[in-house]
Amino acid sequence: MNQIALKELLFRLADDEVIIGHRNTEWTGLGPIVEEDIAFASMAQDELGHAQIYYSLLHALGEADPDRLAFLRDASAFHCAQLVELPKSDWAFSVARQFLYDAAETVRLAALSQSAYAPLAQAARKFAGEEKYHFMHGKTWVTHLGQATAESRARMQAALDHAYPYALGLFETAEADAAMAAEGLCAPEVELKRVWLALITPILTEAGLALPTAAPVEGGRRGQHTEHLTALLNDMQLVFRSDPEAVW
Amino acid sequence: MSDTQWEVYEVFHQKARGEPHVHVGSVHATDPEMALVLAKEQYARRMACVNLWVVRAEDITASAYADADMFQHATDKSYREAFGYKVVKKMRGKKGEGD
């Protein structure tokens, strides 16, 4: 099996999850109502849990342990899409991002559950239940905010227009993608993107929202990031880096 | 001042198929769909769960506490309680489980 392609795939998965998970914890205590505050924080914990399992798979392949992978790498070593590193912004943006991201994750996990790398297929099947809820949550909020009032619809559309080009960046390919597909590690990104569009388009239409037309914002899979990732990592890694040998 | 809260939905939790749905609390929500989404993380995050019900609190018709005396028996009707049957004891014992 092509170790370089496999590790790159795992880094993308893990880094997307740890960064979106950390980002969404920033809503803790600030959610629009207390019930949603709890729900959003709980989903962020789910994503961090998935990241830990993906990092464990990398550790089993000879990489550093999960804590070191999450807390000791610099921004340029992260393979996450730029979508997940953008600031949480207003509630409409975080909802739009969560919907687009979790729809993509739903599609990706379904493909990964058939992965030729058995430990990854097993992890993907394990995450399916939590992901089903995440998608239901995102869909419910997008539909409600799209349909509620003129203001909520306008803010949802603006948020969608902002998030969408970055969401397309979730399907960015790099050199290793040919090997990933050839070895059956995961379906090709172009195929995942097609299924993702078929999943989100009717939901946005029902919500009264227009699917934006925009060019993808890419670079994340190649280690090119916005300044927001550096700021996020400074915050997220601060405690661990203050004493990497500490036993927790 | 008008109430700015969303409507209250009562939440019922079922831990396994065939078990009764048990009232566990309430959530604020705009409609039943949102109530289910929010109830899941409030009430099914720690306990085992196979099914949730949400019901708009307004849709529940309740007796008045002022009428609580209507539930009291004026004469001894313990014969109705059927304590003598083993199966009743078993059921009541089971109901007490995990409370």
Spell out the blueprint of helices and strands:
The complex is a heterodimer of chains A (248) and B (99).
Chain A: H1 3-25, H2 34-60, H3 66-71, H4 91-112, H5 118-147, H6 150-168, H7 177-182, H8 189-206, H9 227-242
Helix pairs in contact in A: 1-2, 2-5, 4-5, 4-6, 4-8, 5-6
Chain B: E1 7-14, E2 22-29, H1 32-43, E3 51-56, H2 86-95
Antiparallel strand pairs in B: 1-2, 1-3
The helix tally of chain B amounts to: 2
Tell me which CATH architecture of the domain at 1-61 in chain B applies here: Roll
Helix content of chain B: 10-25%
CATH fold descriptor of the domain at 1-61 in chain B: Ubiquitin-like (UB roll)
Uncertain stretches of 5 or more adjacent residues of chain A: none
Distance between the termini of chain B: 39 Å
Question: Structural class of chain B, please?
Answer: alpha+beta
Overall 3D form of chain A: globular
CATH superfamily placement of chain A: Ferritin, core subunit, four-helix bundle
Describe it for me?
The complex is a heterodimer of chains A (248) and B (99). In chain A, helix 4 (91-112) packs across helix 8 (189-206). Chain A has a single domain (3-242), classed as Up-down Bundle (Ferritin). The radius of gyration of chain A is 17 Å and the shape is globular. Chain A starts with a helix and ends in a 6-residue tail after the last helix. The model of chain A has no long low-confidence stretch (mean pLDDT 97). With 248 residues, chain A is mainly α. Chain A has helices at 3-25, 34-60, 66-71, 91-112, 118-147, 150-168, 177-182, 189-206, 227-242. The longest helix of chain A has 30 residues, at 118-147. Chain B is α+β, with helices and mostly antiparallel strands and 99 residues long. The mean pLDDT of chain B is 87. In chain B, a hairpin with a 7-residue loop joins strand 1 and strand 2 (22-29). Chain B is flat. Chain B has a domain at 1-61: Phenylacetic acid degradation B (Ubiquitin-like (UB roll), Roll). Chain B is built from two helices and three strands. The chains are: A mainly alpha (248), B alpha+beta (99).
